[in-house]
Write a structure and sequence with these properties.
disordered N terminus; Neuraminidase; 1 helix; mainly beta
């Protein structure tokens, strides 16, 4: 009887030891598969729920010559979807706070671009906010989003000119005069929020069109062999819905596609507001949209 009890105890101990080992392996495997501490999605978009940021996640920019009329903080935390820069601008009686979608040239992380502005990395930190010049900073243009490729090509929207998208390449070391993209890109309402791939192989933007799923949808166009942009392709019902979708772009490492979904809500007093949620999906979904040659 004693031998049987000892044998049962040994089996139980080994089973617990095996289960504990398997759990440790599963935890270790889960940690390896995390992305900045988040469990990444597959080919089906998932709602992204950010962790709360702390004051240590933000660093004051341009500390050497701080300008109290306009200063900013840069984000240094682990949330890859947090806007890189928060700008405070003196409006007289108060400070206007803006979260800018600063984007970097994938081949040069020392410059960040946003709308008609940019900042440069220096030995003492990020510089003051500078203008790209009169070719971009114009009263008759309303730039909301500026995207940049590895070649330095700038692509941006303009809500003051009936919602269009323009592009400026680097020619002989300088940016050329921005040019309107073709009509099949600049068609529909609310054409905005462009994103150009680092290698310029595709362009994504938001637009509301008759053939869409409802309100604004995300569209994509692939670069053709003759260097033109291919047809505008609706990114499908995995990305778009009857609600408003826009702002699709890749994470800096190109692994995941992010986009926003907005829904109009009604308060008890009858006024309305928009509720926005972020989604992300494996960037391989882009290749499922590429037409067969």
């Amino acid at each position: 009887m004693l031998k049987i009890s000892v044998l049962i105890g040994a089996i139980f101990f080994n089973a617990c030891k095996t289960e504990k080992s398997e759990n440790s392996e599963n935890v270790s495997l889960l940690k390896e598969n995390l992305y900045f501490g988040y469990k990444p999605p597959g080919l089906v978009p998932e709602l992204f729920i950010p962790k709360e940021s702390t004051s240590t996640d933000w660093k004051l920019g341009n500390t050497d010559s701080l300008d109290m009329d306009e200063f900013y903080f840069t984000y240094t935390g682990d949330n890859p979807f947090e806007p890189l820069v928060v700008v405070y601008r003196n409006e007289g009686n108060s400070y206007q706070v803006n979260k800018y979608g600063f984007n970097h040239n994938p081949s040069d992380s020392n410059i960040l671009y946003s709308r008609w502005n940019y900042i440069e990395r220096t030995d003492s930190g990020w510089s003051k906010i500078k203008s790209l010049g009169p070719m971009f900073e114009r009263e008759d243009w309303g730039i909301m989003v500026m995207s940049v490729s590895s070649k330095g090509t700038l692509v941006f929207d303009d809500y003051k000119s009936n919602d269009v998208i323009r592009m400026s390449r680097i020619i002989n070391g300088k940016h050329e005069e921005p040019k309107l993209l073709a009509k099949h890109i600049n068609t529909g309402k609310w054409t905005c929020h462009p994103f150009i791939a680092p290698d310029e192989s595709f362009l994504i933007w938001g637009s509301e069109r008759e053939e869409g799923y409802g309100k604004s949808d995300n569209y994509i166009s692939f670069r053709q062999q003759d260097d033109s942009w291919g047809p505008a392709i609706n990114m499908g019902d995995k990305i778009n819905s009857e609600l408003e979708e826009n702002g699709a772009h890749l994470t800096p490492d190109g692994k995941y596609l992010l986009f926003s979904r907005h829904e109009e809500k009604v308060r008890e007093d009858g006024t309305t507001y928009y509720e926005s949620k972020q989604y992300w999906v494996d960037a391989r979904i882009i290749e499922t949209l590429r037409p067969d040659n």
